[in-house]
Each structure stands twice: as structure tokens, then as C-alpha cells.
From TrEMBL:
Source species of the chain: Tsuneonella suprasediminis
TM ranges: none
UniProt keyword terms in alphabetical order: Isomerase, Rotamase, Signal
Signal peptide (residue range): none
Pfam families: Rotamase, SurA_N_3
The protein's name in its UniProt record: Parvulin-like PPIase
GO molecular function ontology, one term from the record: peptidyl-prolyl cis-trans isomerase activity
Gene3D superfamilies referenced in this protein's UniProt entry, alphabetically: 3.10.50.40, Porin chaperone SurA, peptide-binding domain (1.10.4030.10)
Annotated PpiC domain residues: 172-269
């Protein structure tokens, strides 16, 4: 008998194999035809550009090859999802896509659609590429709502049991987590784990978690940048719960092996369950800004900043802010209903320690201008709010829909006719 077969995949593979033909997949051109629909090299280039821009261009040659391969896989899945929706006569109109594109421009970039168009083209991507991604996400969600959601059932007993456990956990912590999930089989787990380690490296080098989650995560939360919202550790798989318990806000860890694949976790925030959290206080603020003329020297900027700081400290409360800002040549904007936890982490504790009428230290830069935030009002949280019956039911339903969606996509891949060029 030949050399022993040590294969544990269940495929009965020999210990040593001889490859016939080209064994280097990187020599293939990154294009494919999916059930007759072409994915071009330009499609891959433009989608890759979104990730490169999110990483501020800091991607190595080796990482770029892996990134292109992963983007191609994502485009194939996206194509399968759009095709499956069309086969079910689910149509997403151009107007719906444009409306979402406009919202993305305003929420994520602070720009108008026209400005986002120009930005995408400047980084080597295109509006069409981002709109196709939006189309894929919307088509897939509509398909799941028609073919999966109606068949997911959560009983009242399950919801009441979770609410009881939630009340029993009052005062313990819940975690707002971001997740990038990639499915793996016994034959692909080594490659998937290696890919996840590369993503971790990019994230720790300053890459955007939201951008990577949107492009690479295979969970339904990819459309919202991987954000799971606030969850209790008991509701997570044991492997993820154990990892999250040791994390601090802002930390990214992984890859973590769990049922069916690997996950990368990002701890966005954590708070006590059903307990008042000072960071849930709602603030009324005045933002006072000072811009420096182009070409201002460091010495002049330092002098103007000292003067600005003294003048702001002399303002006699929020009622005096508008007139005082005009005298010192500063701009002022009012912001109401701002939650403390929505502010940058460096400002949160500062704001909690301020009294009405007091201001933060100046922050910013010569190039972008400096500003202070003046506290004009604060409504402190009284008690932590328990989720409603409907909210808990929705959470349980979404978890089950997500698992079925992964199986649905796996079946689409298995039935697809894909030709690589």
C-alpha cells in the first residue's frame, strides 16, 4: 500500500498529490463569468480602490494580491445575490439605489452625492461601483425578507425567557461589537484563517473596520459595517463571548474560530445592562471655531490660539456666546440632543466633568482650525431602559435569519456556473 493517508477532511485525499497544470492561482487574471454575467478587471480594480482608500494607501504588494482575490470572491457572491433576486422577480429601482447613495454620502462622508462622485473617481473607484454594491445589499435583503424571514419563528416563551435573563443580568455589562465573519470548510480553513490574519494586520495599521466589514464579511451585518449593536455575552457563541470578555473599547482581536468559520471582533463600546450610564446623557452644545488663514506660521498660530483660549474662558455662559464669538472673529454653531457616547472618546470624560457654561480645552489643528465645545444643557439618564418585547423578538429573528442566509448563499455558490478568465 502507498504512503498512509493522513487526510482528516473526509475527502479521502492521498498524503502526497501531484498537481496537473497551473498551480499558481495568482497567475490568473482576476475576472470571472458568473452564470453568463461578466465581472471585469475594472470591476475588481474599482472595488479594491475603496478598501485601499480606507487604509490610506498603506497596503503591501503581497496584501494587494490577497485583497484582489477576496474582492473577486465578494463580487461573485454579490452577482449571485442579485441574480437570485431577479429570478424571484425582485427589482430594486435606480431611484432606491440613488436615495441610499445620497444617504451614504451624507452620513459617512459628510458630502453631497456630486462631491462623493468626485471623491470616488479621484481614488480610482467610481459611483457605479459603489451603487452596484448598494444594489447587491438591497436586493439580497429583499430576497431574505421574502424567502427566509417568513419562515423564521420565535415563540413568545423564548422572548420572555430572554427578558427574564436580561433583568437577572441587570448591572452586568453588555458589549457593542463589530464583527467580520468568513465561512470556512475543513479544506479552506487554513486559507481563510490566513486571510483573516492579513485583515487584522491592516486594521491594526489604521485600516477602517467598517470598510473591511462591508467588503469582506459574509454575515448579514456587512451592510452596516459589521455592527452587531449592544449584545450580552450569553447570546454569543462561547468562543466569541470568551474573547469579548477580555477586550477593551477600541480593541480588535482575531481570527477566532467558531461554528462554520472565523470571526474578527472589534469592541466599539460597553455599558452596564439596564443601569443608567452617564454617557447616555443628552447634551446641548455650542461649538466655537477659529480658522487660521492659509500660510499662518507656527508662532502666529500659537499666539492666536492662546488669545482664543483666553477669550473663550472669558465668555459669561451660553447666553453670551453668540456676541462674544462675533467679537473675536470665531464661528459658532448650536448642537442639541448630542449623546455623550456619540462624542470622540477623548472628549467624553471632559464633557461629563463640565458645568453648564464651561468649555472644553481647544482641539484641532492649524490646517483644519481649532474649536471648543461649550456645555449649555445636560439631561442625565434616570434609569437604564429594558428592551421591549418586540425588540428582543427582532434580535432573535435576525440571528436566525443570518444563519439561514449563510446557508442560502452557500447553496447559490454550489449551483452556480462560474468560469474564470
Amino acid at each position: 500500500m502507498d504512503e498512509a493517508n493522513n487526510d482528516t477532511s473526509g475527502l479521502d485525499l492521498p498524503a502526497n498529490i501531484s498537481l496537473l497544470g497551473n498551480s499558481n492561482p495568482n497567475e490568473r487574471k482576476p475576472t470571472a463569468v458568473v452564470n453568463g454575467q461578466v465581472i471585469t478587471g475594472t470591476d475588481v480594480d474599482q472595488r479594491v480602490a475603496l478598501v485601499v482608500a480606507a487604509n490610506k494607501g498603506k497596503i503591501s504588494e503581497e496584501e494587494m494580491q490577497r485583497l484582489r482575490a477576496q474582492v473577486l470572491r465578494n463580487l461573485i457572491d454579490e452577482t449571485l445575490e442579485i441574480q437570485a433576486a431577479k429570478a424571484q422577480e425582485i427589482e430594486v429601482s435606480a431611484a432606491q439605489v440613488d436615495e441610499t447613495y445620497k444617504r451614504v454620502a451624507q452620513q459617512n462622508f459628510g458630502q453631497s452625492p456630486a462631491a462623493l462622485d468626485a471623491h470616488l473617481e479621484s481614488i480610482g473607484s467610481s459611483p457605479a461601483s459603489l451603487k452596484r454594491q448598494i444594489l447587491g445589499e438591497m436586493a439580497w435583503q429583499q430576497l431574505l425578507r421574502r424567502n427566509v424571514s417568513p419562515f423564521v419563528n420565535v415563540s413568545s416563551e423564548e422572548v420572555n425567557e430572554m427578558l427574564a435573563r436580561l433583568n437577572a443580568s441587570r448591572g452586568t455589562e453588555e458589549y457593542r461589537l463589530g464583527e467580520i465573519y468568513m465561512a470556512a470548510t475543513p479544506t479552506t480553513q487554513a486559507q481563510v484563517e490566513a486571510n483573516m490574519r492579513k485583515i487584522i494586520e491592516q486594521l491594526r495599521s489604521g485600516g477602517s473596520f467598517v470598510a473591511y466589514a462591508r467588503q469582506f464579511s459574509e454575515a448579514s451585518t456587512a451592510a452596516v459595517g459589521g455592527d452587531l449593536g449592544f449584545v450580552r455575552l450569553e447570546t454569543l457563541p462561547a468562543e466569541l463571548a470568551a474573547a469579548a470578555r477580555e477586550m477593551q473599547p477600541g480593541q480588535v482581536i482575531g481570527p477566532i474560530a467558531n461554528s462554520g468559520g472565523y470571526s474578527i471582533l472589534y469592541l466599539i463600546d460597553k455599558k452596564a445592562i439596564l443601569s443608567a450610564d452617564p454617557r447616555d446623557a443628552t447634551l446641548s452644545l455650542k461649538q466655537i471655531s477659529l480658522n487660521f488663514p492659509k500660510g499662518t506660521s507656527k508662532a502666529d498660530a500659537t499666539k492666536r490660539l492662546e488669545t482664543f483660549t483666553q477669550q473663550v474662558q472669558a465668555i459669561k455662559g451660553c447666553g453670551d456666546a453668540e456676541a462674544s464669538a462675533a467679537k473675536i472673529g470665531a464661528d459658532i454653531v448650536s448642537n442639541d440632543n448630542i449623546r455623550v457616547r456619540a462624542l470622540p472618546e477623548q472628549l467624553q470624560q471632559i464633557m461629563l466633568n463640565l458645568q453648564i457654561g464651561q468649555s472644553t480645552p481647544p482641539f484641532g489643528s492649524v490646517e483644519e482650525g481649532v474649536r471648543v465645545l461649550m456645555l449649555c444643557g445636560r439631561d442625565d439618564p434616570q434609569t437604564g431602559d429594558a428592551p421591549s418585547f418586540d425588540q428582543v423578538m427582532s434580535q432573535l429573528e435576525n440571528e436566525r435569519i443570518d444563519k439561514r442566509a449563510q446557508r442560502y448563499l452557500r447553496d447559490l455558490r454550489n449551483d452556480a456556473y462560474i468560469v474564470y478568465n
